[in-house]
Amino acid sequence: MDASDDDLAPEVRSILDAAVERAGDDTRIAVDARSFPEAVAAAEADGRVPVVAEIKPTSPTTEGRRDDDPVELAREMVGGGAAALSVLTEPDFFGGSIERLERIREAVDVPVLRKDFVVHESQLDAVAADLVLLIARFLDAEGTDSLSVLYDAALDRGFQPLVEVHTREELERALDVGAGMIGINNRDLGRLEVDLGTFERLAPRVPDDVTLVAESGVATAADVRRMREAGADALLIGTAIMDGDVQANTERLTTIDAPNAGRRADTTTKFTTR
């Protein structure tokens, strides 16, 4: 990677270096994706906070490891009211796997996000999912494909790309490629510190027709209300759900009396190439 990434935390740099070297797949896939905006709208219509519950066995920022049956965890999260699921497929640092995502997506009927460090187009072909995470900070650098190339390549395969940003510059790049879904990560990948104010500062710059997801740092009812008041259409929550009874934790965070985001994207949004 180039010098612009020198400010990454050592753990993140190791993850990124491994991602650059990871092989992709030679067989191009086609995805019939379940609509994430429709899932968000359905959750709100049912009186639930739209939550993307994350199945995360471990991570560099958490202690220990959880080895429950991932399919059972997924079913419990959906039973607790999750509008969608996020499944880690990064194997070395997060304990994820392609096989785990395949099993989970077959077992549930909600949209499933593939959460990984995808930096080459061929890596998109590793597994079918409804959404795929594209982290703006890791793209357009030496050794990686550009955000624009990966965004269009994801659309061409039928994925709904969720472009993750942390800074104003990254947000502008996401908007420049026409991102219909944007995740604002409250975690600074340079210091691994979480600040919910990150979402509050960037959200007003996001057009109302973009589906907006708050990522990282949401653990309490107060956090949920804070992010919803700031304009989050949905919340991606991992540790606060995985730590303990996942169904009870999911239900607790989806049944909070929180305000509507007031910016939910049109559920008829089509994800097409530019």
UniProtKB/TrEMBL annotation:
GO terms for MF: indole-3-glycerol-phosphate synthase activity; phosphoribosylanthranilate isomerase activity
Keyword Lyase tagged: yes
Matches recorded under Pfam families: IGPS (PF00218)
Substrates-to-products reaction catalysed: 1-(2-carboxyphenylamino)-1-deoxy-D-ribulose 5-phosphate + H(+) = (1S,2R)-1-C-(indol-3-yl)glycerol 3-phosphate + CO2 + H2O
Keywords of the record: Amino-acid biosynthesis, Aromatic amino acid biosynthesis, Decarboxylase, Lyase, Tryptophan biosynthesis
Assigned EC number: 4.1.1.48
Claim: tRNA-binding is one of the keywords in the record: no
Residues annotated as transmembrane: none
Domain Indole-3-glycerol phosphate synthase intervals: 20-253
InterPro entries: Aldolase_TIM, Indglycph_syn_Halo_TrpC, Indole-3-glycerol_P_synth, Indole-3-glycerol_P_synth_dom, RibuloseP-bd_barrel
GO terms under biological process: L-tryptophan biosynthetic process
Biochemical pathway: Amino-acid biosynthesis; L-tryptophan biosynthesis; L-tryptophan from chorismate: step 4/5
Family in the record: Belongs to the TrpC family.
PANTHER family per the UniProt record, alphabetical: INDOLE-3-GLYCEROL-PHOSPHATE SYNTHASE, TRYPTOPHAN BIOSYNTHESIS PROTEIN
Protein name: Indole-3-glycerol phosphate synthase
Gene name of the record: trpC
